[in-house]
Design brief:
Number of domains: 2
Helix content: under 10%
Number of helices: 0
CATH topology of the largest domain: OB fold (Dihydrolipoamide Acetyltransferase, E2P)
Number of strands: 8
Order of helices and strands: EEEEEEEE
CATH superfamily of the largest domain: Nucleic acid-binding proteins
CATH architecture of the largest domain: Beta Barrel
Strand order of the largest sheet: 4-5-6-8-7
Largest sheet: 5 strands, mixed, barrel
Length: 113
């Protein structure tokens, strides 16, 4: 058995660094790798999408079916700041929502009137 160390970079921006070793057993080579994310790569914060909607149905104390202005229906969850007032959210209530650009199926209810 022979151990051959290697080190390589993938991609033009070199965001991932791969280290590992090659094991040679009876003519067959096996590659074992360990991926490391470089510490100097910072995540870009993404602002939430803000919109308003109308509560159609209350599933539970923490889940509501909300209709958006474009006609899409999503699941709305009250924010932690609304913990004391979430009992006031009833069907027909106008709510203000924050949604992530990664998931258009649910949103956080941040306020209501």
């Amino acid at each position: 058995m022979t151990l051959l160390p290697f080190r390589t970079h993938l991609g033009q921006q070199k965001l991932d660094e791969w280290e590992g070793f090659v094991v040679e057993v009876k003519g067959a080579c096996f590659l074992f790798t360990i991926a490391h994310t470089l510490a100097n790569v910072s995540a870009v914060p993404i602002d939430p999408i803000t919109t308003m909607g109308k509560v159609l149905h209350r599933f539970s104390e923490n889940a509501f079916k909300v209709s958006l202005p474009n006609g899409k229906e999503i699941i709305g969850h009250p924010a932690k700041a609304l913990e004391d007032r979430k009992g006031e959210i009833l069907p027909g209530t106008i709510v203000f929502l924050e949604m992530t650009p990664f998931d258009f199926e649910k949103g956080r209810i941040v306020d209501f009137k």
